[in-house]
Every structure is written in C-alpha cells, then in structure tokens.
Amino acid sequence: MSQRIINYLKKDNNSANFQNPEFKFIADSVSDIIAQHDRSYKHLFVNKVIESITGRARDEFIGKTNAELGMPEALVDIWNKQLEDVFASAEKVEIDFSYTSKNQTFHFHSVAYPIFGESGSVESVISINRNVSSQKKLTEKLLQSTKYSSMSHLASEMAHHINNPLAIINLQCELLKKKLENQGQSADVFNSDFESIILATQRLKKLVHSMSELSQFDLASQEHTSLSIQDAIYLALSICDERQVSNGIRREIRGNINFAFPILTSGFIDSLSHILTNAFEAASQSKDPWVKIELSRNSKFYSIKIIDSGTPKQIQEEDLLPFTTTKGPSTAGLGLSLTKSHLTQMGALLNFPVDQPNTTVEIKIPIIS
Hints:
By secondary structure, this protein is an alpha+beta fold. It is 44% helix and 22% strand. The chain has helices spanning 2-11, 21-27, 49-54, 73-89, 133-182, 188-215, 229-242, 265-283, 335-346, and strands at 33-38, 43-46, 93-101, 104-116, 122-131, 224-228, 250-254, 260-264, 290-297, 301-308, 349-351, 360-366.
C-alpha cells in the first residue's frame, strides 16, 4: 500500500496531501508510519500506526513539532535534519533511526519526499517510515553468520593453496639428497639442514590438515531460507550499512527479480555484501560516488550486475587467486577468492563483463526448470 503513496508522489505531487480523501484513506491503511510536516516542522498529519508505536493519540501530534511533543533530543535532531535537507534540496532524503517505546526498540527506514506548492517551492514534506526491526535482526544474525562462514572457507582455501607448495618443498629435499648421493657426494654435511626443512614442512602439513578438518564444518548455521534476489540484495546492503562502508554513496537498483529461491544465507549474502563493499569502497574515491545494481534474467540465468563509479578496472582471472590484492599490503587478498568459492558451491557464476565503461561484477544464477 505504501507503494501507492509513492506513486502519488511521483505522478501527481499536488494530490499527495491529506486533504485528498483517497490519499488519506490509503495512508491510514498501511503499516508504515506516514507523517506530513510543514516548514516549521509541525505535524500536519500522522496516520493511525503512530498510536501503536508511541502509545499516544494521533491528535496529540497535529500542530506540534517533535520537540514540542517531548521526543528524545537526539532523535529530534535526526528528524529535523532530514526535513531541513528535503526543504533545501527539493529531493527525497533517506535515513535510518531507532525509537524505543514501552521497553521495546523499533528500527525504522525513513524516506521523506518534498511536496510542492503552486509557486513551485517545497511547501511540506511527507515521510514514509518503515518498521525494519525484523530485517535488522536478520541482518545482525547474517553479519555473525557470514563471519563464521568466511572463517571456514578461508581455512579451506588456505589449506588447498599451502598444501601444494609444501609437498613440492618436501619432494625437492628428497630429490636433492638422492642427486648428491648419485653423484658420489656425501649428503651428511647437509643432513641437518634437510631434516630441519622436512620437519618444518611436516609441522605445516599437520596444521594444513587441521585447517582442512575445520573447513568440513561451517561454523555458521547452514539453514536454507527462501528469499527473492531483491530481498537478498536489501539484506546485503543492510550489512554494508552496518559496516558503514556505504555512507554518502548514492545507490540505485534497476530491474526487479521477485522469484523466491532457496539460498544458503551464510554464503550467498556474504558474497553479495563483499562485492558491494568493494564497489562502495571504489566509488568513494570518485567525485560523484554511486553504485548501481542491475537485475535481469534470460532463459538460462538470473543476472545481478554491480557497477561502481570508481576508476574503471578490468578484473583479471589472476585477481581471483588467493593472496592477490590491489588494495595494498594491509589486506590479505582473499575476498574475491572466497566469494568465488561461495558462489561456485551454489552453482552460480562470477563474471566480469568487458563491455562496460565502469568496473562491473556480475553474478549469474542458473534457472532450474
């Protein structure tokens, strides 16, 4: 139902006021908190939901500011700044905030829209405040889950890529000893060195074996859940917001894939959030930072393209190898490697289209008929 309000705001801004009976009826029928403020930040309208959240009659709000209502000062500052920004920019402004009432904390995502008067200036602001408490709890659970999942995959990747060099070192030591003996030279003088190398490799092999054992157990919950790709993206974006890597960066989602499919939450959401984190970090270096997410499908795949405004970089196959990084010596260079591992286990593909003007990462999920 809130989408109908948004449609009003987009198509016929002048009708988006609560003197309009149909608009008022819709606003009173939704589960989101809908409010309208004038330039003095006084409430012109609030819908019925406000009563169940605050425990106060809606009539108490009309003609008063949040400060006059005795709302928490910190929240009043946040809400007033949102209103101020909408009046100043004449564009929608999004914020997140938490409100505690009756010993219960609610988390909201708020989108405020400008309402224009006959003169063409912003006359009032309508905000749609969605209760995202359940989504926030799931996001926090996924944050913890992805940490454990990454540890398991990290152990697997390191075990695989360390074990091969160890085997080569061990074999070369044995071959060198035999070569010296075949040439009639005594290897005794080198025996202590050989033994030290072999003992060191054996200790490391035991460590690698332990890491391999660890990788058999995902420390995160392995429950599958049915999510649409759209919802999975919103959860991954929420994780980025929690990690504060997306601050001040414009985001845009194009397309819509609402088909629900079973996914391994700790793997797929982790992969999405990692790719998005890379995109946000790259975009933050540009003058006009943005990240775009394009959703589409064909007869074989669902496609998720993540594009950023950072310096264009063609990701090469070697960038997917463990310990390869373009971010400097402070990073381990395991992110894309783990991401590819997560997605491969799902049967998904990780692509890097070359026909894009900006750095683009594409996840392709097979459509199973």
